[in-house]
Each structure stands twice: as structure tokens, then as C-alpha cells.
Design brief:
Rossmann fold; single chain; alpha/beta; 10 helices
Length: about 220
């Protein structure tokens, strides 16, 4: 068994990626920006600092950025008590923990959003540490969050595996030097994840749990 498994949360363990896309779409409309939801969806997984620069003009008046973030948070908060984990998500965390791996959550979500995600997962008994965007200077695809999670796990990169749903996860892992296992539940294709360097791709947490013994998580 690998010494630590680090999990992204949005789109990987909890079904939130499309909720985020719609909430950002509405926040942008409120701020006077028209952005297609497909473009927003492809940026989900980045922190808001990177997402805004990815989908909006870089030469924009940035004085409205905080209002956009606040609008997204307020819109998304309406779903917090209705968030649903993916099938097998809690079981996967517990399987890793029972086999002796350190289980760390590493998400670009804010600390308050992370609280809602953990309540949805209902698997705190299997979680050893949590890192969020509040703990780092830059969000994914920068490696900061992954490196912070490795520090929290207390293991080197060659003794850990990351599980994520976005190309931003794979890129962050490549920069941090650890393998990334992809899942399809965030809406990114298998080919894209593999092309970015994912070492394996599964349909979701449930399939990864069922095929655990032959997966990179088992070492």
C-alpha cells in the first residue's frame, strides 16, 4: 500500500463541478460578463484566482473580481446542505485508511466550502488532514496545494498518489513530482487526462474502490 493518498474533492469525491459552473455563470452575468458555461466548466478545478484570469480578459478592470467571487460563493452556498458524494467515495477513503495510508484532502475550495464538502462526505473518521486554498499562495495548476498536502501527510512524493478529476490536478501533480490517478466524474475525458500524464483513469470513486487491489493506490 502506498504511504499516502491525496484526494481532490470537487468533481472527484463530491458531485459539484456542474453546480460550480452554473454558479460562476450566474455570477459573471450579474457582473456584466457573458461567458459560456462550457468554457467555465473546463476551468473548474482551478482556484478562483486562476479561474477568473482563465475565462475573463486579462486586461479587465479587476476592481470587480472580489464581487464576482462573493457572488459565486453566495450562489453556491444555496446547495451546501444538498451536496451529494459520488458512489463509493466514503468507502474509498476508508479503504485507504484501513490499509494504513494517510488520507489527505487537497482542494482549491475555500475553508468554508470545505466544511460543506466534508459534511457531504461524512467520512471524517478516515481523513488524516485537509488542505485548502487558504493554505497556499497559488491554486492548481500550480503545485503549491499538492506540496502542502504532501507536507501534511509527512511523506515524499514517490510514496504518495493523487486522485483528481481535472487536467489542472494532473498538471499540479506533474510539477510536484507525484503520480495522478484520474476519474471521469468531473466531466473531463479519459483521453485528456491520459494525455496530460495521468497514470490511470477510472470512471469514478466507485470503480476505483471496486478495482482497488490492481490500482496505483495499492502500490
Amino acid at each position: 500500500m502506498t504511504d499516502a493518498v491525496i484526494f481532490d474533492v470537487d468533481g472527484t469525491l463530491v458531485d459539484t463541478d456542474y453546480l460550480h459552473a452554473v454558479c460562476w455563470w450566474q455570477a459573471f452575468r450579474q457582473g456584466g460578463h457573458v461567458v459560456e458555461t462550457a468554457e467555465i466548466h473546463r476551468a473548474i478545478g482551478m482556484g478562483s484566482d486562476k479561474l477568473l484570469d482563465h475565462v475573463l480578459p486579462r486586461d479587465r478592470d479587476r476592481s470587480g473580481d472580489d464581487a464576482l467571487r462573493a457572488a459565486h460563493t453566495a450562489l453556491y452556498a444555496q446547495y451546501w446542505d444538498r451536496l451529494e458524494p459520488f458512489d463509493g467515495a466514503g468507502g474509498l477513503l476508508r479503504r485507504c485508511s484501513r490499509l494504513g495510508a494517510r488520507v489527505v484532502l487537497a482542494s482549491s475550495a475555500s475553508a468554508t466550502e470545505m466544511g460543506a464538502l466534508r459534511r457531504a462526505l461524512d467520512a471524517d473518521d478516515a481523513i488524516d488532514a485537509v488542505t485548502s486554498s487558504a493554505d497556499v499562495e497559488q491554486s492548481k495548476p500550480a503545485p503549491d496545494l499538492v506540496e502542502e498536502a504532501l507536507d501534511a501527510a509527512g511523506v515524499p512524493a514517490d510514496r504518495a498518489v493523487f486522485v483528481g478529476d481535472a487536467v489542472w490536478d494532473v498538471r499540479a501533480c506533474a510539477r510536484a513530482g507525484l503520480p495522478c490517478v484520474g476519474v471521469l466524474t468531473g466531466g473531463v475525458s479519459r483521453a485528456e487526462l491520459l494525455d496530460e500524464g495521468a497514470v490511470a483513469v477510472y470512471a469514478g470513486a466507485g470503480e476505483l474502490l471496486r478495482r482497488f487491489d490492481g490500482s496505483p493506490l495499492a502500490g
